[in-house]
Amino acid sequence: MKIILKNISMKFDDVIAVDKLNVTMEEGSLVSLLGPSGCGKSTTLFMLAGLYQPTSGQLFFGDQLVNNIPPEKREIGMVFQNYALYPHMTVLKNIMFPLKMEKVPKKIAMEKARDMASLVHIDHLLDRKPGQLSGGQQQRVAIARALVKKPKLLLLDEPLSNLDARLRLEMREEIKRIQQATGITTIFVTHDQEEALSISDKILLMKNGRFQQFSGPQDIYDHPKNEFVAQFLGNPPINLLPATLSGDRYTVQLTETGEVIQLPYPVSKEVKLNELLLVGIRPEDLYIEVDENKQGIGGKVLIVERIGRDNLVSFLIGERKVRAIVPLDASITQGQRVKFGLHPNRFHIFRETDGENLLTGKSLITSHQHSEEEVV
Ligand SMILES: Nc1ncnc2c1ncn2[C@@H]1O[C@H](COP(=O)(O)OP(=O)(O)OP(=O)(O)O)[C@@H](O)[C@H]1O
Ligand SMILES: [Mg+2]
């Protein structure tokens, strides 16, 4: 089912939890709702579930306006952070429960519950009670219970947050598998950027109740619309270096060192010559440059840390710490001066005042115009 949020807002007294959200989620897709604590993720999910009424705006499921449709008539399945299983019921009874409420004959309910249990791989646990299950198994029960009525929309609110790291990884792959097997439009709330990047068809990133960007994982990572998006995604985080335009619109000069960086295309005419900019470079986009004539940024190495397959090099540019990911065999030692090259098209220029990405493409579409595309 296609989900359309049209100018959706939610106010609690003086808090605007969600502020004029406009998004269209395609039928059958897995969308992550991502953002820092308090940005409005759960509130958005509760509005979709019908547990909250938006203070303004329209919510469509397909062509149907659902603002006034009660939760039980919305054909949704929901999994909360704490799973909320019934402790005194067996796994089978837990999964059957939504069908029992609808007075589905017991034999059919049992059959459907067994099918769901098999889909989420817990067929062997049907006679146990929730207390006798691991966290991951309980979570599977909660998903089976949410799916048993064959909902048109599955809502998951941080379903992995109380699992350990390894189980979390396993369960997120499971959620992806189950979502693909059922084809149910799924909205997955998380504040973990890596989780969102790994399983989503699209990521909706929010901040303070406001829309930031709605794009596929690779696109949002490679083409962040603003500094917040760029900083929220990626670990170690993107490097940000203060700079200003250097004479023309094709070059910027780093404030700390005076080094000049050539841009792939000019920044917008709106930018004033002395306006403070931030050059954003991801750690994996810096490489060791031996050619003195090529452009790059130089610094003194503070520390070299091994992170699995690579080394993480932290160095100082002026007063600023910058991180680069380099191969293990690159011989770099603490205290050494190293020059790092930048790929010509793999950095961003953000305006310091509002964070807008000024290098979003040759046409220099502003983020405002860009977000209009998502508006229905
Ligand atoms: N029932 C409520 N009454 C008043 N304010 C609320 C209520 N529910 C949420 N808020 C406020 O609305 C904002 C958004 O809350 P929400 O729970 O949607 O955030 P979230 O993104 O899910 O955060 P988290 O990652 O911590 O779960 C917060 O500022 C929160 O304090
Ligand atoms: Mg929440």
Chart the SSEs and their pairings.
Layout: E1 3-12, E2 15-25, E3 30-34, H1 41-49, E4 56-61, E5 64-65, E6 76-79, H2 91-101, H3 106-119, H4 135-147, E7 153-157, H5 165-182, E8 185-190, H6 193-199, E9 202-207, E10 210-215, H7 217-222, H8 227-232, E11 239-246, E12 248-254, E13 260-262, E14 277-281, E15 286-288, E16 296-307, E17 310-317, E18 320-327, E19 337-342, E20 348-351, H9 367-372
Parallel strand pairs: 3-8, 3-9, 6-7, 7-8
Antiparallel strand pairs: 1-2, 1-4, 4-5, 9-10, 11-12, 11-14, 12-13, 14-20, 15-19, 16-17, 16-19, 17-18
Bound molecules: adenosine-5'-triphosphate and magnesium ion (MG).
Descriptive terms for the model:
binds magnesium ion, 33% strand, 6-stranded mixed sheet, 9 helices, Rossmann fold, binds adenosine-5'-triphosphate, OB fold (Dihydrolipoamide Acetyltransferase, E2P), 5-stranded antiparallel sheet, alpha+beta, elongated, single chain, 24% helix
Would you mind describing this structure in some detail?
The protein is an alpha+beta fold. The protein has two domains: about 5-230, P-loop containing nucleotide triphosphate hydrolases (Rossmann fold); about 240-355, Nucleic acid-binding proteins (OB fold (Dihydrolipoamide Acetyltransferase, E2P)), CATH 2.40.50. About 25% of the residues lie in helices and about 35% in strands. The chain has a six-stranded mixed β-sheet, sandwiched between helices. Strand 7, helix 5 and strand 8 form a beta-alpha-beta unit. Helix 2 crosses helix 3 (about 105-120) and helix 2 (about 90-100) runs parallel beside helix 4 (about 135-145). Pfam families: ABC_tran (PF00005), OB_MalK (PF17912). This is ABC transporter ATP-binding protein. Keywords: ATP-binding, Nucleotide-binding, Transport.
